Amino acid sequence: MDLIADRGRRVTVEELNTTKLLAHATEQAKARKYQDMLIVDCDAHHYETENFKEIVEFMENDVFRQLTKSGMKKARHSIVPGNIGFQDMGGRVTRYPLRSSEKTDGDRQRDVQLGERWMDAMGVDYSCLFPTGMLNIGLHPLKEMENELCWSYNRWLTEKVLPETGGRMYSMLSLPFSDPDECLRQVETFGGRKHVTGFMVTTVRSDTPVHANPYMKVYRAIEERGLSIAFHSGPNWGESMFKSCNRFLAVHALGFSFYNILHCTNWVVNGLGERFPKLPVMWVEAGLSWIPFLMQRLDHEYMLRPSECPLLKKKPSDYMRDMYYSTQPMEIQDMEALECTFRMMNAETQLMYASDYPHWDFDLPSTIYDLPFLTDKARHNILGGTAARLFGLQPRNEAQKQNLIKYGNYRPA
Amino acid sequence: MAEQFVGKAAEFEEGGRRIIRLGQDEVGIFKHEGEYFAYSNYCLHQGGPACEGLTIARVMEKLREDKTSMGLYFSETDMNFVCPWHGYEYDMRTGECISDRTIKLKRYQVQQKGDDLYVIG
Question: What is the fold, at CATH topology level, of the domain defined by B3-120?
């Protein structure tokens, strides 16, 4: 396969082979003896948009299914809202343009096979599978279509994909957040299925108040089932405040943090932590540097204006420390600042490793393993122990079991 | 000093590359504008295969006298190679990371003996 580079000169590149591409990650895994510690990737992705042919068959409404299938012919229109961006950096991140060239067996789900390849290469035992294109579902102008697409994706994932993973992949299913009643129906329908640890709200939507009354029944239903809720961020060049940006770097750097900052703020100041104290809440893929920023901003304002937050019984930062965060994309630029961030968020118990693979800014487990300021307990907890405890994930060998017991993370099946 | 055979110079095309193992390191050897450049194949970021991605001209931005931008363009002189994992870009002639020139890949000497190319480490 050829990639265009160097002012248009064609560069021949072999077909993509994830195992080969990640050979250096495998070296890291062996050198650090990852097999002895349970490693959980709390935020990995697949390209469900390449599987819409299968997914749309699960759409409930005949008219919407026909509309969607018709539009898929010769790619006349997209199914989920698009998002302008240059994730592949003009082909520099070669797994984007080469993805279709990677060979898989025809008798198993391609996404499962690709997932197993990178998990094995990195030394990851379990991964939480999130979609890619569907992270823009909150931008869909048709509420009914958002409902249909979330429903069909959740059915396809739980019936066709996750059962093929041997239990190594789980998911927090996509909620059609524009419609609280439909959210509740999908929680009631899918909440008890195997490999489902919770539900995910894409935060790429700036006009939805997470604290609005119609959502309380949804949160309560998730909490009652012992499941978790994740708020997953993303970039959106169409967001009005980012329309002045002329670089994807700017949209990406700001967007992921912005959306989680917005919704986390509404969650905290409206006392959702008091209303649902047993509901584990995760904030995913916004990096970490926004957390100390928001803690300080909200605490400062709260001290001056407590009358606006009568449900709070402690400072906003205390509620933020009750919630969970995924590591990626971790800003390892100033080690002292990073250490301070870990301290402020109680990373030892609240932070969970995430790769975001195969997206362009993925992080390897070594980004956590090699941090010089971590205790052994923190290292084990962040890389997988906390997730194992939260989601009831089982060790895959005796050494992992002993380490989970040692650090208080073992939950027998 | 370890010495590792790379290949025949006659078989090394302009713009081509080889990846070889040299002791504990992997080394990427490029032929660029008739010269050979060899660097460690471990990216300074997260250890990706730094020499196995695209080679692509450096992106520049030209300003007018009044500091207004004339936009982006590809350099006619500066070539980079890019780690395929995350896009870290390195200067072909120095191995410097172009976003922070205080860090650079370990460089190896390439020696030609007759038509045989060797990397010295």
Answer: Rieske Iron-sulfur Protein (2.102.10)
